Amino acid sequence: MNDEFSHKSGNTIEFSLNQSKEEEMKRILLLVYDALKEKGYNPISQIVGYLLSEDPTYITTHNNARSLVRRIDRDELLKAVVRSYLGE
Length: 88
What we know:
The chain is mostly helical. The protein has one domain (18-86). The chain is 58% helix and 11% strand. A hairpin with a 3-residue loop joins strand 1 and strand 2 (12-16). Helix 1 (17-38) packs across helix 2 (43-53). The longest helix has 22 residues, at 17-38.
């Protein structure tokens, strides 16, 4: 499967599925982070706990956060985190 789509009509539009996936993961993580914070949890600790254990009870059901976080592929998220941390 090709990860890029280019359309030429005077201007070139490039769309990367990988970038789109990462943007969606970030959007979801921000929503989950906000929901955890609103409920008084330490969002970073809760998200890390979920990522390490895959136990959804680390994530609140507030604002549908638990359902949202399950949309994220943990392996893809961890790859994105490592790439970001290493500056790739």
